[in-house]
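Handoff note, outgoing to incoming analyst
You'll be picking up this chain. Sequence as last confirmed:
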Amino acid sequence: MLLKDASAFLDDFSKKSYTDIFNIRSRVEQKDWERNAITNIKEHIFQGVNKYSTTKNVLYVHIPFCATRCDYCPYYTTPYNHTLVNEYISCLKKEMNRYKNTPYLKSTTFSSVYFGGGTPSILTVEQIKEIGEHILNSFTFDSNAELSFESNPSTLTLPKIKILKSLGFNRVSLGIQTFNERLLKSMNCAHNKEKGIAVIRQLLENNFIVNADLIFGLTGQDNKDIEEDIRILSQFEGSLQVTYFPLRIAENTPLAKQLETEEELSIGAHLKHLLKIDAFIENKLSSNGFIREECPVFYHSSGASEHKYHSTETRVIGFGSSAGTLLDEAENCNFFDIYEYMKNVDSDSSTALSGIMLTQQQAMERFVLYRLLYMNRSLPNFKNLMEERFFEYYQTPLNDLYEKVLNDMLKLRFIRLNGEKIELTNRFWRILNKVKIGMPSII
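Most recent structure output, in case you need it:
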């Protein structure tokens, strides 16, 4: 595609609904023409002040390194190498330094920082200290900010817990996945049941909010396995949250072939199966004192009831390879490949793989679309909650925007209505699996 044609193509986005844009971006590969056509979003936006300087601003940092590659993981990762990690941290600091003194960043107070991955806990104590201190010294945070660190039980040691505590981190999202030894081995996870339980105890003893990441829909997993996971979680006392992710499988992947062979299920049948398991999980967690707010997120009524940090309800500035940025004026995603990312940082070039400018209308529609996707749609006051959160985010009423986005999603067969209940379609899940822009792993 010629550059002038590409520019016209991207310019036409301003006339479309955000639902249309979401659909289109799942079908467009990031080619050289797009990289040349897009505006360097951070350079453009960061020259002005943040219009929402104290409202739901999140700093996201991507650490792409892992000890092993889990078969279910959809995110960009690369094997751990100590020298490479040091080089990457150096580039992270350079990317942050490039923007930290811009009018936008200088006027922004962050309510949260989130280290996602990959496996941030694979960093050494010294590396955690180096990047942690750089961030805290470079940006402004609320006095009660949530500082969150994604971890794996196999690599989160007590000395690392202590350094996180000394830096002011107060929440750890822990990739438990399951306590079932058989399933952990089948997923190629590096930890076992005993290690998972021990690390949760250590974190709670050090007064961290602990988010336990679990997963359902695994091959060979049944309701008894899930019940046992919930029973173990319910034994802990303290600030415990649970994020229960469904295993969504993309077409033509090893997991899809395994599903067809071992479970004799198509992807469509698997998605229907996930809905049944999800209802089972909600029932079991509710009977054990957990309250559901987000579709994957549950809070225990006796612990921390407020999770300040929602990946789809914040203005996100992302640093690092594959890091997404979601702002009112635009969204973009950095290069996935770590070497391409570092090369562009070192040459003072744009790190953006893809991106698009948005109108205010499109940004508001994005808010509604993501809330329809991630909020608990079964709540009786769902729309009222949406209206409250929209007003908190934009300081303006939702008005008829909810109905507009709902109709846009119906036209594209993203959703269907079952009475008053909104159900996401298989078509929408397939599209969601393909979107490469702006969705960091930060729930």
